[in-house]
Amino acid sequence: MKEKNIINYQIRLCLFFLIVCSIVCPVSSAPLMNTSTQDSIIVDFDQFATDVFNQSDIPGMAIAITDRSHILYAKGFGMTSLENPQPVTPDTIFLINSMSKAFTSAIVGILIDRGVFSWNDTVVSILPDFALSDPKTTREITISDLLVHNSGLFEYDGDLLFRMGLKSNDIVHQMRYLETEKPFRSGYGYNNLHYFVASEMINKKTGYPLSYTLKDLLLTPLGMQNTSIGFDFLSSPETTRCGFADHHIISENGYVPVPMDKDYLYGEYGEVGAGGISSNVIDMTKWLRLWLNEGKISGNRVLQNETIREILRPANTIASGPGFNFTYAKGWVVKCDPMLPYPVIWHNGATAGMSSYNGFIPEEGIGIVVLTNAGENGVADFIGDTFMFMISNPTDYYEFTNISALGSDIRPTAPVSPYSGVKPGTYDYSGLQGSYLNNYYGEMNIRNESGDFIVELGPRPLRLNLTPVNKTSSLFRFEPLIQNVSTPDGLFSFTYNSDNKVETISAQGLTNPDRPPVIFSRVS
């Protein structure tokens, strides 16, 4: 599951609002606003959200705002799909992406409340087959370390295996072959694999798949009837009744739909705790009210107060600067900002074709969720974050709603590759064909299919197309074979043996383009 860095856009927003800070009055702590002020803000917010949507060109979006007891605002914008357009409503179901992580943390918290887990349980005490490259980390890493991204792995590294067809338990086994970026517990490194492992720990301790545990411990108690995990939801009565938003990515011609074939769905909607949940904004207001009411819903306690505090406790610094601080808790990010009297607790998410945001301010007793069916944009973040500033600055927020300052983020252009590429038929590829092996990614096959050279990875498999960067080098670009799927996309470089056969392949960009290349060695 490829995602943008969850913090970069928020930092840009923070800098934008800090500039605004120089022309508006400083914020001071204040009691909760009265109802008329709140209603006025929501009227202005509706106009702001409409303006952002109209300028963004994204196909569809849904937003809901809730206080501790009921929905204050719920609205759909645009269409569910560019191919089969239906109006988006507050009931339309979207993939919520990495906002799923907080559900995993909450499940762990409930199981801790019931004596099944403790925050200090080591991974190997529950999953004996688990290992990382460093023996000390393997012995000592706990479920708490996983949930705050404290392992030392490279950000976003390694989660391509799920798209290749490996199950979560197989991925957990393979993690021993991943390189680390930094020492254990020495700093933040966002990685979906942490929540893959946490999911497996939950499965092992409960004896049930995550879908059952999620429904039993959270969805049913919260009344979230239109929320599910995995891709079987597409044929469910709930999805048929509510409608589902298709994925869209940006191209040279604007947003285009992502093909919803089963292999693609498996990679995006797998039953894992990192990002596989689908929901609508109505259900998500129930989720936010659980946190606004400190673990209670409709008077019934779901999470203990102490557990809520532990989940939301800032634990791992992501970024900080003059006057602002971003810290990862357990499935949530805590943001402190000079323009806000109270911390904002939030998380966003993005895959190839959808992006989302949810956040709340406990002291204000209010939260917001924004779901969109378009990837590679900052619309959900911008709308959600701006609403938090409006609520916190009820008498002077108009400068915060200046959408012109962030136009390139809410209306992105298609990424342009620096590699022109030419037709493979003009080259001698005879030395490329064969099988190659990497300890983590397993076997990779390269073969000629009617003049095109195709890479296959994994048991499903994931299929990539190879094209040369230029006529003189052994540098090749790889990209998805399925049209309109934006991940992965990177470069292969080769070394040759004396028989002019490729001996090793260096792959840059399989998951994280900033990590060292992944090396595959020829086996046949």
From TrEMBL:
<dbReference type="InterPro" id="IPR001466">
    <property type="entry name" value="Beta-lactam-related"/>
</dbReference>
<feature type="domain" description="Beta-lactamase-related">
    <location>
        <begin position="48"/>
        <end position="379"/>
    </location>
</feature>
<dbReference type="InterPro" id="IPR012338">
    <property type="entry name" value="Beta-lactam/transpept-like"/>
</dbReference>
<protein>
    <recommendedName>
        <fullName>Beta-lactamase-related domain-containing protein</fullName>
    </recommendedName>
</protein>
<dbReference type="InterPro" id="IPR050491">
    <property type="entry name" value="AmpC-like"/>
</dbReference>
<dbReference type="Pfam" id="PF00144">
    <property type="entry name" value="Beta-lactamase"/>
</dbReference>
